[in-house]
Specification:
Blueprint (H helix, E strand, L loop, with lengths): L8 E5 L20 E2 L2 E2 H11 L4 E6 L3 H9 L5 E6 L6 H8 L1 H4 L4 E5 L2 E3 L11 H7 L8 E7 L3 E2 L7 E3 L5 E3 L8 E9 L15 H9 L3 E5 L4 E3 L3 H11 L5
Parallel strand pairs: 1-4, 1-6, 4-5, 8-13, 9-14
Antiparallel strand pairs: 2-3, 6-12, 7-14, 8-12, 10-11
Length: 247
């Protein structure tokens, strides 16, 4: 069984300080750094709209007023602000704080430092997010992570994050020297998985560890090329690829 209803709500994690992106974030939030002539957050929102999402909860902290004004100017998707001006809540804490805004149905959660080339067109119209949603089975999983192959990405200088099993479950790389898959910043979740967490800053990995032990943490291939835009060098490489180069 997989989900039959379209997911209408997304949570966009846009509140980070963007420290590694300096000096580009000295006067703007990381979410408004442009790649290929478009702000990072607009790349993500465009992908959400392409997957049928109609409502996005966006958390704000660094240059919050600037980011809020930018996203509220969009007319093609409903924007709801989760205000973290007082305290930056990190990835898991951000979803926990926004919980009253998210509803109880499955949602998409996305970082803003990912840009990607969609997989070849299929029944999901070539939308990796739509395919991720279609494969989300709430009877067997509480989170389904979109994973990029380590040989199909740029800007992510690590030994990888996960092992993807044949049944779709994932294991953390942990002490293994390398793995073939990287989490590329998009997941479908049952939002109730954060209900038992305290209202404090924390990484989503704390939730994933718990789900993994229950066999309810799954993953799926992106199927396209992923660009992790984490610093100015990675931004330049991503822009070169988008504009026709292959850095």
């Amino acid at each position: 069984m997989t989900t039959t209803a379209k997911i209408s709500t997304a949570m966009i994690l846009a509140a980070g300080m963007g420290t590694r992106m300096r000096p580009l974030t000295n006067e703007r939030p990381k979410a408004l750094v442009e790649v290929g002539g478009r702000a990072l957050i607009d790349h993500v929102l465009d992908r959400m709209i392409g997957a049928g999402v109609t409502r996005a909860v966006v958390n704000v902290h660094h240059f919050a007023d600037m980011l809020e004004a930018h996203v509220r100017a969009r007319r093609d998707i409903e924007i709801v602000i989760s205000d973290e001006r007082a305290l930056l809540m990190e990835t898991g804490g951000g979803v926990r704080q926004a919980r009253p805004l998210l509803g109880d149905a499955p949602i998409v959660v996305a970082n803003i430092d990912s840009v990607w080339e969609e997989p070849p067109s299929d029944v999901h119209g070539g939308s990796a997010i739509a395919r991720l949603i279609a494969g989300f089975d709430p009877g067997r999983m509480d989170a389904r992570l979109m994973l990029a192959r380590m040989d199909q990405c740029l800007g992510y200088d690590t030994p990888g994050d996960f092992h993807l099993r044949t049944d779709g479950t994932v294991d953390f790389r942990d002490e293994d020297p390398k793995s073939d898959w990287a989490y590329m910043g998009v997941q479908v979740i049952n939002p109730s998985i954060v209900d038992g967490e305290p209202l404090e800053p924390f990484s989503f990995r704390r939730v994933w560890r718990r789900l993994k032990d229950k066999g309810r943490l799954h993953g799926a291939p992106l199927g396209g090329f992923w660009m992790h835009v984490g610093d100015p060098g990675a931004r330049a490489a991503a822009e070169a690829r988008i504009l026709g180069g292959r850095s």
